[in-house]
Amino acid sequence: MPSITALIRVLLAALLVMPAAVHADDLRSPADRRWWQGEWKEEYRDGPCQVKSESKRGEFKREIKCKDGIGADWSGEWKSEFRDGPCLVKQDVKRDEFKEEVKCERSRR
Fold it and tell me: Which end of the chain, N or C, is less surrounded by CB atoms within 10 Å?
């Protein structure tokens, strides 16, 4: 009989753990949300930098400004444009400002 009791305990523990594992993805912070899942806009500080993010259907924009370049994790100035899968990424970077714009198109089949 002790083996049946142990088996029941294991089954009950599995039943309690499974729902938590299934919904673990819902516990992500709002900053981790996927940009293609609807429209949203947010502003927050990341250390000494001000971050603005905006998402619309098929488009994402992020702008990071660091006063006098303090706290910037990039160096130099550049402009670049490249493709990342179905998305076109444009970056305009200065010493104290990082602008990134991502525009995606749905693939036509």
Answer: C
